[in-house]
Amino acid sequence: PATSEETVLYWHKFIDYDQNKTLLICDRNLVRSISWSDLSTFGFISGREIELDGTPYKCRILTGGSANRGDNYAGGQLPNEWDRYVMNGADVGEPHFAYAPIPVPEDYPNASIYNDQAAWARAHNQAWNWISVASWCQETSGSDRRVLRGDHSARYWTATSPMNAYAYYGWRPVLELL
Length: 178
What we know:
Layout: E1 11-16, E2 21-26, E3 31-32, H1 36-41, E4 48-52, E5 55-60, H2 81-86, H3 117-121, H4 123-128, E6 134-140, E7 146-149, E8 157-160, E9 169-171, E10 174-177
């Protein structure tokens, strides 16, 4: 079958010498309206071993911080992978990766930019597709809530019931080279 723009997956590759790992992070959520509990059932929270073209990976989701940094718009408690890779550390100092997308301060204000058409069109959202669908993350927040990142702004952090499966919650896979 022919390949179309709608069926091509794009991945951001990070060779992280500081963390001693290589990650491929999908540029978007592949599945919407999925719960954290569903992802857990299939083994995609902390990782499930898979093989693609003869290469072994752990397929999982990002970490996002077990609490916020003062409020939901301030991002997740550091360190976490959303702030390291998606935010590229830009909101806390120098970017970690010179070759990776870097958000501008307008991508992470202390208010929702969900309805801001300029934000939708900016380079960082075009690279990561974080507006409109939050990505489930590994952490728990308290005993009965799970973490989500993105949606309202690039560093937005929230937590909700692991059973919730709304259209604006999604699965952004990470492939970690084994």
